[in-house]
Batch of 3 targets.
Target 1
Amino acid sequence: MKALSQLRWQLIAAQMLVVVVGVVVLAIAADRLGSGIFAADLRARLEGVPMAERAAVEAALLASFRKATGQALLAAGAAAAVVGLTTSVLLLRQILRPLNEIARSSQRIAEGRYDERVAVPASDELAIVATSFNQMAESLERVEQQRVALIGNVAHELRTPLTGIEGYLEGLIDGVFAPEPSVFGDMQHEVRRMRRLIDDLQTLSHVEAGQVSLHLAEVDLVELARRVVNQLRPQTITNCLELTVLPETPSLIVRADPDRLAQILLNLVGNAIRYTPEGGCITVRLGVAGAMARAEVIDTGIGIPPEELPYIFERFYRVDRSRSRASGGSGIGLTIARHLAWAMGGELTAESAGPGKGSTFTLTMPLR
Ligand code: ADP
């Protein structure tokens, strides 16, 4: 605010300086040039007049010329100063009002009022400033909303296993449950769920902050995919799922962190197993797409509705909350997987023809 009032006085002083310099330059020009021309003209007209008389008339007329131009310049200077002052005050008001408003609004945003916006003025340049300010305020508000939602989500996710453990403990204390290994096993299951969630949250905070440490090496994607599939194969037995790796080339060497790459594939194939009903098929197809290696995890599972597709990489987003939670899903696996893919120069996308029509998750990684 202080800076703006300083600017006001600086601009008014600059305007006045222009008027003063203009008047001084005009006065010098009138005195040097105007007087010379006037005197020469006078001399020509006074030809024939006796010398003694001529000098006196010339001096008197020159003095009167100087007086007249001086007075005219004074009047013109005063008029220019009044006009200059008025226009600069009007102009300043037009410029400073929106700037003052932006300064006040930023103060309010700094105090935590993220819904603050400024009116967009008519002037082009100021409109750009005001629009950019409003855009900045909007993204700050969005970040704040996400932060609040994140806290709510974390609290909610932690409460679920905690409520389970509390229930078992109360049952044990009241004697409703006998202290048998199965009860402790169920409690352990809930504790593990909490641990997994906390580990996932920690990984998420690292990947989102870009702080994940990568040990890049040359990795054979075909071999890695086979390893991941073999690791998860036991989980396909209960649902009689068919799980196959389909490489289009014998090997696909990519530059990536092998553990992180395995983590992404484990998440994608794990999800495919979780969301594919009995007797379904899961195929991991591997090939080349331009300068990238491509791994597609294709399933014949429950699919994803088109309106949900844009959100499934968002934190805690689950198409079917109860189904995902019942199977131990936290809704942040895909968020982590996508950030890991980005960190290694790759991309992760999802497609689905709709509910009941299966899904395809495509991971691309830069080739060696
Ligand atoms: P979750 O741990 O809940 O599986 P993810 O981040 O891995 O979390 O997945 C987010 C959501 O995306 C899931 O809850 C599910 O609704 C949907 N999803 C992920 N993979 C598939 C798939 N292969 N088929 C259908 N839906 C899927």
Note: The first helix runs from residue 2 to 45.
Target 2
Amino acid sequence: MNKQTRQLAAVISGQDTSDGVGVRLKRIVSQQQKNAFDPFILLDEFGSDEPTDYIGGFPDHPHRGFETVTYMLAGAMLHRDHLGNEGHLRAGDVQWMTAAHGIIHSEMPEQENGLLHGFQLWINLPAKEKMKPPHYQDFAAEKIPRLALADGGYIKVIAGDYVTETQTISGPVTGVTTQPLYFDVLLSPKQQLDIPINPQHTALIYVYQGELAIGASDRILQAGQLGQFINGDNIQLATQQQSAQFLVLAALPLNEPVVQSGPFVMNSSEEIEQAFRDYRNGVLT
Ligand code: FE
């Protein structure tokens, strides 16, 4: 079967904003997209070496109805939840938190200065899994397979499979209904890369350093931009004079109604009201 290369359908530039207690971040995917990237609800990049940009962190707050994925590039975060779980996230580590029925947690920088850089992604859960018990998949950096590419580039496979002609590299994340693909890629200048994508999946690329050319076209994604790729079973990428670092995200869309309010993502406004009521009454979790 002939491969069909996906087309770049939309480009979004991340917006500088703040969340938590004054944490400055770039918000790339949000409610503004009206679930156009189903099942991806939110994507934030936080990155600063100014302590005042991050020191306030994200004190106790709830989540229900989806999964949060935190991936650190630099610095250290301390995660604590209402169950007494505590996790230290360091450069290269991934925390895959399935909040489902309910988690109340804090995400605080575990450093007083230096660079803090990373991403938080929210992935929706299907209706039938929104009220399941919460659980975690935590992976230290060394548990994440890294395939070396030519000239110093690499692909880190956090979730899903990267399939080449000779091998399949599988990320450590398991048991997620939306079959997510999450890669962190570095391409050196003048490299090419083809990424196979399930034709049914939503596919996004977020460039966080350098610039990335799309296939043979002259379209470029700059650092801070996200591209949506539609129709096909592979994405063709290339670099020109600059290197590029980017995330590749893909997953099966849920095609269900989405109602989001703050930290809750449900299927109806009644369920959102229930979540707020449960939180007030101390029975969210
Ligand atoms: Fe949170």
Note: The pocket of fe (iii) ion is lined by residues 58, 61, 63, 68, 105, 107 (CB under 6 Å).
Target 3
Amino acid sequence: MKTALITGVTGQDGAYLSQLLLDKGYKVHGLIRRSSHAEAHLRRLEWLGIQNDVTYEDGNILDVSAMSRIIREIKPDEVYNLAAQSFVKASWQQPLLTSQVTAIGVNNILEAVRLEAPEARFYQASSSEMYGLIQEPQQSEATPFYPRSPYAVAKLFGHWMTVNYRESFGMHTSSGILFNHESPLRGLEFVTRKVTDAAARIKLGLASELPMGNLDATRDWGHARDYVRAMWLMLQQESGDDYVVATGRTVSVRDLCRVAFEQVGLNYEDYVKLDAAFLRPAEVDVLLGDPAKAKAKLGWTPEVTFEQLIAEMVEADLERHSARRA
Ligand code: GDP
């Protein structure tokens, strides 16, 4: 039986990855940050019905001594670092916290793995936001980076540390440059879930409008369940590497609104209002990934289309709000 440690286990990807690894017979340990509302944080694992199947470890990626102790104790075969301050907009308001968690946190875990379990395989959750002001129309592993937010700068540090630990210490480390990936478990601060939740509430008469930022931005959106499979595949290869994980199709925020509202039989133009509060100091206008390497080397292809993804999210939000009302 293999043992995995997942940081960020209470997040969207942590929940889906736990489910995947449990299904494969892994013993899954999840890092939990001590807080007064820890139970609320297990809601994504509960949604998947696996909250009692994960072993929780108290710790924090900011505390390298705690990370070393945990890794020494559980001797993981695989470590997945999904923990981060992951919301781009918040990174302008909390740039230093974002750097501590999203950049230095990666180095802390890499050090703990190097010292306590150097044979363990390591996955770093890198991000398409690192491409920022895009240098090529379609972004691959060879495309130069141009980060456009404190979040993206921090992720770039984590990415290069992961590459450096591989090249300097011969460790099996992989960086997954994942384009936006969503699901019914996505946080409400992200645009897909904000829109599917609003479409559901408006349909049920619980809201009357949807304040939005830049509708012209486009993203390459996939389903988180597909993307965690790519993470696992990276760690099953003979050596670590960097991979873009994307669908190869980009859709505007405007079309996201259109598709989500169509799902409940409404026209988004009747409800969406521009609200400058949701604009950003610097925008990433377009992201479009080239998943050719992941396809060729990992045999990975996404199974869920954008329309299926949004339909699943709207359905889940309709169910949640209907249940709350009943
Ligand atoms: P990101 O790509 O990691 O920043 O993911 P988000 O889901 O937070 O944002 C995706 C895109 O949607 C960005 O270009 C945002 O500027 C744009 N957007 C437009 N309106 C909104 C909004 O109300 N909320 C969020 N989160 N994003 C918005």
Note: The first strand starts at residue 3 and ends at 7.
